[in-house]
Amino acid sequence: MKRLATLLVLMTTLGLTAQKQDGPRKGRELKANLTTEQLATLSTKKLTLLLDLDDGQQKKVMEINLEQAEMRKAKHAEITAKKESGEWKKPTADERFEIENTRLDHQIAQHQKMKKVLTEEQYQTWKKLKLKKIMNGKKKMQEKGRRG
């Protein structure tokens, strides 16, 4: 009887762990199918709820988010095309520096644009949200590294 109970528990555990896991990538797959306008609209509406933006601010933030979404989609399409054609290679140290430098320049420009649109209090809240998102991403990357 003990063997049967042990076998039953073992089979149940194995069955549960063998199920498909809908992990953190599920949200990314959904966002990948959206257009740049849809992504910008969702992002703008989230900021409107968090920062209580007025109509003028919403329009300006929408333009900033649309520009950002278009840039991200274009970069993603470029990398995907290179990978599919077999041209993509791991970037050298100089290329990584250039990529990171360009990315940081875009971030600085976005911060300056947002600072012009938002009030000081809204801007500080937005910066805190960005920092929180960055730290959460770093934490997830560390956890992913531990899992192997």
Automatic annotation (TrEMBL):
It comes from the Bacteria. Residues 75-94 are annotated as: Disordered. This is DUF4890 domain-containing protein. It comes from Flagellimonas hymeniacidonis.
